[in-house]
Amino acid sequence: MTSPLAPKLLSELNKDDKFAGFVVLRRLEIRQKKDGSPYLALEFADKSGHLPGRLWDDVDKYRKELANGMIVKLQASVEIYQDQKQLKIERVRPINTEDPVDRSRLVAASERPPEEMRRHLRRLIEGLKKPPLRNFLRRLYDDSEVDRRYFEAPAAQLWHHAYLGGLAEHSLAMAEVLLKAAESYPAADTDLLVAGALLHDIGKIEELAWDTTIEYTDRGRLIGHLIISQELLASHRTPDLEVPDELWGCLMHMILSHHGTREMGAPVVPMTLEAIMLYHADEMDAKANAFNRIIQRSREQGERWTEKVKLIDRYLYAGDKRITEESGEGELF
Fold first, then answer.
1. pTM score of the predicted model
2. Domain membership of residue 310 as a residue range
Protein backbone atom coordinates (compact mmCIF):
# COMPACT_ATOMS: atom_id res chain seq x y z
CA MET A 1 0.00 0.00 0.00
CA THR A 2 1.28 3.45 -0.89
CA SER A 3 2.18 5.53 2.14
CA PRO A 4 0.50 8.97 2.48
CA LEU A 5 4.04 10.39 2.73
CA ALA A 6 5.00 8.83 -0.59
CA PRO A 7 2.12 9.42 -3.01
CA LYS A 8 2.15 7.99 -6.47
CA LEU A 9 4.16 9.80 -9.08
CA LEU A 10 2.13 11.61 -11.73
CA SER A 11 2.78 8.98 -14.40
CA GLU A 12 1.39 6.29 -12.07
CA LEU A 13 -1.98 7.97 -11.61
CA ASN A 14 -5.08 6.57 -13.27
CA LYS A 15 -8.66 7.75 -13.72
CA ASP A 16 -10.36 8.65 -10.41
CA ASP A 17 -7.10 8.38 -8.43
CA LYS A 18 -6.59 10.95 -5.69
CA PHE A 19 -3.30 12.80 -5.38
CA ALA A 20 -1.92 14.89 -2.52
CA GLY A 21 1.72 15.84 -2.63
CA PHE A 22 4.42 18.14 -3.92
CA VAL A 23 4.91 18.84 -7.63
CA VAL A 24 6.45 21.50 -9.83
CA LEU A 25 4.21 24.03 -11.54
CA ARG A 26 5.71 23.74 -14.98
CA ARG A 27 3.39 26.11 -16.84
CA LEU A 28 0.76 28.72 -15.98
CA GLU A 29 -1.27 30.42 -18.72
CA ILE A 30 -4.27 32.73 -18.59
CA ARG A 31 -7.01 31.73 -21.01
CA GLN A 32 -10.61 32.74 -21.67
CA LYS A 33 -13.83 30.83 -21.06
CA LYS A 34 -16.60 30.99 -23.65
CA ASP A 35 -18.19 33.87 -21.73
CA GLY A 36 -14.94 35.85 -21.93
CA SER A 37 -13.95 35.49 -18.28
CA PRO A 38 -10.42 34.21 -17.48
CA TYR A 39 -9.28 30.85 -16.20
CA LEU A 40 -5.83 29.35 -15.58
CA ALA A 41 -4.39 26.50 -17.62
CA LEU A 42 -1.68 24.78 -15.57
CA GLU A 43 0.77 21.95 -16.06
CA PHE A 44 2.26 20.07 -13.13
CA ALA A 45 5.36 17.90 -13.26
CA ASP A 46 7.51 15.54 -11.24
CA LYS A 47 10.38 13.28 -12.25
CA SER A 48 7.99 10.85 -13.96
CA GLY A 49 6.21 13.23 -16.31
CA HIS A 50 3.59 15.96 -16.39
CA LEU A 51 -0.19 16.40 -16.30
CA PRO A 52 -2.40 19.40 -17.10
CA GLY A 53 -5.03 20.95 -14.86
CA ARG A 54 -7.41 23.90 -14.80
CA LEU A 55 -8.35 26.53 -12.22
CA TRP A 56 -11.70 28.06 -13.06
CA ASP A 57 -12.23 30.35 -10.06
CA ASP A 58 -10.24 32.87 -7.98
CA VAL A 59 -8.02 33.57 -10.99
CA ASP A 60 -6.63 36.87 -9.65
CA LYS A 61 -5.72 35.23 -6.33
CA TYR A 62 -3.83 32.34 -7.95
CA ARG A 63 -2.13 34.58 -10.52
CA LYS A 64 -0.49 36.45 -7.64
CA GLU A 65 0.41 33.33 -5.63
CA LEU A 66 1.68 30.97 -8.33
CA ALA A 67 4.52 31.20 -10.85
CA ASN A 68 6.22 28.98 -13.43
CA GLY A 69 8.91 26.73 -11.92
CA MET A 70 7.48 26.97 -8.41
CA ILE A 71 7.18 23.89 -6.20
CA VAL A 72 3.59 23.63 -4.97
CA LYS A 73 1.51 21.39 -2.75
CA LEU A 74 -1.34 19.96 -4.82
CA GLN A 75 -4.51 18.12 -3.94
CA ALA A 76 -6.37 16.79 -6.98
CA SER A 77 -8.06 13.84 -8.64
CA VAL A 78 -7.54 12.40 -12.11
CA GLU A 79 -10.12 12.64 -14.88
CA ILE A 80 -10.08 11.88 -18.59
CA TYR A 81 -10.64 14.60 -21.19
CA GLN A 82 -10.33 13.89 -24.92
CA ASP A 83 -8.64 10.55 -24.16
CA GLN A 84 -5.96 12.27 -22.07
CA LYS A 85 -5.47 12.29 -18.30
CA GLN A 86 -5.76 15.63 -16.54
CA LEU A 87 -5.96 16.83 -12.96
CA LYS A 88 -9.14 18.11 -11.36
CA ILE A 89 -7.63 20.55 -8.89
CA GLU A 90 -9.09 20.75 -5.40
CA ARG A 91 -6.38 22.78 -3.67
CA VAL A 92 -2.99 24.18 -4.65
CA ARG A 93 -0.57 26.45 -2.80
CA PRO A 94 3.11 27.40 -2.85
CA ILE A 95 5.28 25.39 -0.47
CA ASN A 96 6.48 26.85 2.81
CA THR A 97 9.69 26.29 4.74
CA GLU A 98 8.13 23.60 6.95
CA ASP A 99 6.98 21.41 4.05
CA PRO A 100 8.90 18.08 3.79
CA VAL A 101 9.74 18.36 0.09
CA ASP A 102 11.77 15.53 -1.45
CA ARG A 103 13.32 17.19 -4.50
CA SER A 104 14.56 13.83 -5.81
CA ARG A 105 10.91 13.02 -6.62
CA LEU A 106 10.49 16.22 -8.58
CA VAL A 107 13.43 16.37 -10.98
CA ALA A 108 14.31 13.33 -13.09
CA ALA A 109 17.96 12.32 -13.35
CA SER A 110 19.97 9.79 -15.33
CA GLU A 111 20.33 6.36 -13.80
CA ARG A 112 24.04 6.59 -14.61
CA PRO A 113 26.02 8.26 -11.78
CA PRO A 114 27.93 11.37 -12.92
CA GLU A 115 31.29 10.00 -11.77
CA GLU A 116 30.81 6.79 -13.76
CA MET A 117 29.99 8.87 -16.85
CA ARG A 118 33.06 11.05 -16.23
CA ARG A 119 35.27 7.96 -16.20
CA HIS A 120 33.61 6.73 -19.41
CA LEU A 121 34.24 10.05 -21.15
CA ARG A 122 37.89 10.10 -20.09
CA ARG A 123 38.39 6.55 -21.40
CA LEU A 124 37.01 7.62 -24.76
CA ILE A 125 39.24 10.70 -24.86
CA GLU A 126 42.37 8.72 -23.96
CA GLY A 127 41.50 6.25 -26.72
CA LEU A 128 41.78 8.90 -29.44
CA LYS A 129 44.70 8.32 -31.77
CA LYS A 130 45.26 11.93 -32.89
CA PRO A 131 47.23 13.83 -30.20
CA PRO A 132 45.91 17.30 -31.20
CA LEU A 133 42.28 16.20 -30.87
CA ARG A 134 42.96 14.21 -27.71
CA ASN A 135 44.75 17.16 -26.09
CA PHE A 136 42.00 19.58 -27.08
CA LEU A 137 39.32 17.42 -25.48
CA ARG A 138 41.42 16.97 -22.36
CA ARG A 139 41.75 20.75 -21.95
CA LEU A 140 38.07 21.33 -22.69
CA TYR A 141 36.84 18.99 -19.97
CA ASP A 142 39.53 20.17 -17.57
CA ASP A 143 37.56 23.43 -17.53
CA SER A 144 35.64 22.93 -14.28
CA GLU A 145 32.60 24.92 -15.44
CA VAL A 146 32.30 22.99 -18.71
CA ASP A 147 32.73 19.71 -16.83
CA ARG A 148 30.12 20.57 -14.18
CA ARG A 149 27.46 21.74 -16.61
CA TYR A 150 28.11 18.95 -19.13
CA PHE A 151 27.36 16.26 -16.56
CA GLU A 152 24.40 18.12 -15.05
CA ALA A 153 22.65 19.22 -18.25
CA PRO A 154 19.64 17.50 -19.80
CA ALA A 155 19.79 16.73 -23.52
CA ALA A 156 16.39 18.27 -24.24
CA GLN A 157 13.44 20.00 -22.62
CA LEU A 158 10.82 17.32 -23.27
CA TRP A 159 11.44 14.67 -25.90
CA HIS A 160 14.59 12.63 -25.24
CA HIS A 161 17.03 12.39 -22.31
CA ALA A 162 15.04 15.22 -20.72
CA TYR A 163 16.53 14.79 -17.28
CA LEU A 164 19.62 15.79 -15.33
CA GLY A 165 22.68 14.05 -16.76
CA GLY A 166 20.84 13.37 -20.01
CA LEU A 167 23.32 15.28 -22.19
CA ALA A 168 26.30 13.19 -21.09
CA GLU A 169 24.30 9.94 -21.17
CA HIS A 170 23.12 10.65 -24.74
CA SER A 171 26.56 11.73 -25.99
CA LEU A 172 28.37 8.73 -24.49
CA ALA A 173 25.80 6.30 -25.90
CA MET A 174 26.24 7.84 -29.35
CA ALA A 175 30.02 7.46 -29.13
CA GLU A 176 29.67 3.74 -28.41
CA VAL A 177 27.12 3.28 -31.21
CA LEU A 178 29.43 5.02 -33.67
CA LEU A 179 32.47 2.98 -32.64
CA LYS A 180 30.44 -0.16 -33.26
CA ALA A 181 29.15 1.14 -36.60
CA ALA A 182 32.70 2.02 -37.67
CA GLU A 183 33.54 -1.69 -37.65
CA SER A 184 31.33 -1.96 -40.74
CA TYR A 185 32.65 1.28 -42.27
CA PRO A 186 36.46 1.15 -41.82
CA ALA A 187 36.92 4.28 -43.93
CA ALA A 188 35.32 6.34 -41.18
CA ASP A 189 37.65 8.32 -38.92
CA THR A 190 36.90 6.96 -35.44
CA ASP A 191 38.54 9.93 -33.71
CA LEU A 192 36.15 12.29 -35.48
CA LEU A 193 33.19 10.01 -34.71
CA VAL A 194 33.97 9.95 -30.99
CA ALA A 195 34.74 13.67 -30.79
CA GLY A 196 31.62 14.51 -32.78
CA ALA A 197 29.44 12.40 -30.50
CA LEU A 198 30.87 13.92 -27.32
CA LEU A 199 30.67 17.51 -28.60
CA HIS A 200 27.66 17.61 -30.94
CA ASP A 201 25.26 19.01 -28.30
CA ILE A 202 27.72 20.72 -25.96
CA GLY A 203 26.04 24.07 -26.63
CA LYS A 204 23.08 22.83 -24.60
CA ILE A 205 25.00 23.66 -21.43
CA GLU A 206 24.17 27.27 -22.33
CA GLU A 207 20.99 26.72 -24.36
CA LEU A 208 19.11 25.15 -21.45
CA ALA A 209 18.60 26.05 -17.80
CA TRP A 210 17.61 23.44 -15.24
CA ASP A 211 16.45 23.56 -11.65
CA THR A 212 12.90 22.44 -10.88
CA THR A 213 12.10 22.57 -14.59
CA ILE A 214 14.03 22.48 -17.87
CA GLU A 215 13.71 25.75 -19.76
CA TYR A 216 15.41 27.55 -22.63
CA THR A 217 17.69 30.45 -21.79
CA ASP A 218 17.35 33.71 -23.72
CA ARG A 219 20.63 32.91 -25.50
CA GLY A 220 19.35 29.42 -26.23
CA ARG A 221 16.21 30.71 -27.92
CA LEU A 222 17.94 33.50 -29.79
CA ILE A 223 20.99 31.60 -31.05
CA GLY A 224 20.48 27.87 -30.50
CA HIS A 225 22.86 25.14 -29.42
CA LEU A 226 24.46 24.54 -32.83
CA ILE A 227 25.96 28.02 -33.00
CA ILE A 228 26.60 28.10 -29.25
CA SER A 229 28.56 24.84 -29.63
CA GLN A 230 30.67 26.30 -32.42
CA GLU A 231 31.43 29.45 -30.42
CA LEU A 232 32.18 27.60 -27.19
CA LEU A 233 34.57 25.18 -28.87
CA ALA A 234 36.29 27.95 -30.84
CA SER A 235 36.88 29.88 -27.61
CA HIS A 236 38.68 26.86 -26.15
CA ARG A 237 40.76 26.41 -29.30
CA THR A 238 41.92 30.01 -29.52
CA PRO A 239 44.92 29.94 -27.08
CA ASP A 240 46.79 27.66 -29.45
CA LEU A 241 45.69 26.33 -32.80
CA GLU A 242 47.01 22.86 -32.12
CA VAL A 243 44.16 21.14 -33.97
CA PRO A 244 44.93 21.47 -37.71
CA ASP A 245 42.47 23.53 -39.74
CA GLU A 246 41.28 20.63 -41.91
CA LEU A 247 40.58 18.41 -38.90
CA TRP A 248 38.90 21.29 -37.10
CA GLY A 249 36.77 22.06 -40.13
CA CYS A 250 35.58 18.46 -40.37
CA LEU A 251 34.68 18.46 -36.67
CA MET A 252 32.78 21.76 -36.93
CA HIS A 253 30.97 20.46 -40.02
CA MET A 254 29.76 17.44 -38.03
CA ILE A 255 28.44 19.66 -35.24
CA LEU A 256 26.73 22.16 -37.54
CA SER A 257 25.16 19.48 -39.76
CA HIS A 258 24.02 16.95 -37.17
CA HIS A 259 20.35 17.96 -37.45
CA GLY A 260 20.50 16.53 -40.96
CA THR A 261 18.39 18.98 -42.96
CA ARG A 262 17.95 22.71 -43.20
CA GLU A 263 14.26 22.23 -42.36
CA MET A 264 15.39 20.85 -38.99
CA GLY A 265 17.66 23.82 -38.34
CA ALA A 266 20.99 22.63 -39.73
CA PRO A 267 22.91 25.50 -41.37
CA VAL A 268 24.65 22.90 -43.55
CA VAL A 269 23.70 19.33 -44.47
CA PRO A 270 26.02 16.34 -43.84
CA MET A 271 28.72 16.14 -46.52
CA THR A 272 31.20 13.69 -44.99
CA LEU A 273 30.96 10.04 -44.01
CA GLU A 274 31.46 10.92 -40.34
CA ALA A 275 28.78 13.65 -40.47
CA ILE A 276 26.09 11.38 -41.93
CA MET A 277 26.93 8.65 -39.42
CA LEU A 278 26.70 11.17 -36.56
CA TYR A 279 23.31 12.39 -37.78
CA HIS A 280 21.82 8.90 -37.87
CA ALA A 281 23.33 7.91 -34.51
CA ASP A 282 21.80 11.03 -32.98
CA GLU A 283 18.40 10.28 -34.51
CA MET A 284 18.49 6.67 -33.34
CA ASP A 285 19.59 7.29 -29.76
CA ALA A 286 17.21 10.21 -29.26
CA LYS A 287 14.15 8.40 -30.61
CA ALA A 288 14.99 5.08 -28.96
CA ASN A 289 15.37 6.81 -25.60
CA ALA A 290 12.05 8.63 -25.98
CA PHE A 291 10.14 5.57 -27.24
CA ASN A 292 11.60 3.38 -24.49
CA ARG A 293 10.67 5.83 -21.73
CA ILE A 294 7.09 6.22 -22.96
CA ILE A 295 6.57 2.49 -23.59
CA GLN A 296 8.03 1.44 -20.22
CA ARG A 297 5.73 3.87 -18.40
CA SER A 298 2.70 2.29 -20.08
CA ARG A 299 3.92 -1.24 -19.37
CA GLU A 300 4.31 -0.39 -15.69
CA GLN A 301 0.66 0.68 -15.67
CA GLY A 302 -0.41 -2.51 -17.43
CA GLU A 303 -1.42 -0.71 -20.63
CA ARG A 304 -0.89 -2.38 -24.01
CA TRP A 305 -0.84 0.97 -25.82
CA THR A 306 0.51 4.34 -24.73
CA GLU A 307 -1.53 7.49 -24.74
CA LYS A 308 -1.28 9.38 -28.01
CA VAL A 309 2.11 11.07 -28.21
CA LYS A 310 1.30 14.50 -29.57
CA LEU A 311 4.83 15.35 -30.69
CA ILE A 312 4.88 12.44 -33.16
CA ASP A 313 1.09 12.14 -33.62
CA ARG A 314 0.82 8.42 -32.86
CA TYR A 315 0.20 5.79 -30.22
CA LEU A 316 3.06 3.42 -29.32
CA TYR A 317 2.63 -0.31 -28.77
CA ALA A 318 3.69 -1.41 -25.28
CA GLY A 319 2.52 -5.01 -25.59
CA ASP A 320 1.88 -7.48 -22.81
CA LYS A 321 4.06 -6.81 -19.75
CA ARG A 322 4.13 -10.53 -18.87
CA ILE A 323 5.42 -11.48 -22.32
CA THR A 324 8.09 -8.79 -22.35
CA GLU A 325 9.37 -10.02 -18.98
CA GLU A 326 9.60 -13.64 -20.08
CA SER A 327 12.59 -14.15 -22.33
CA GLY A 328 11.34 -15.29 -25.71
CA GLU A 329 8.04 -16.66 -24.47
CA GLY A 330 4.69 -15.85 -25.98
CA GLU A 331 3.72 -14.28 -29.28
CA LEU A 332 3.11 -10.65 -30.05
CA PHE A 333 -0.11 -11.24 -31.95
1. 0.80
2. 292-325
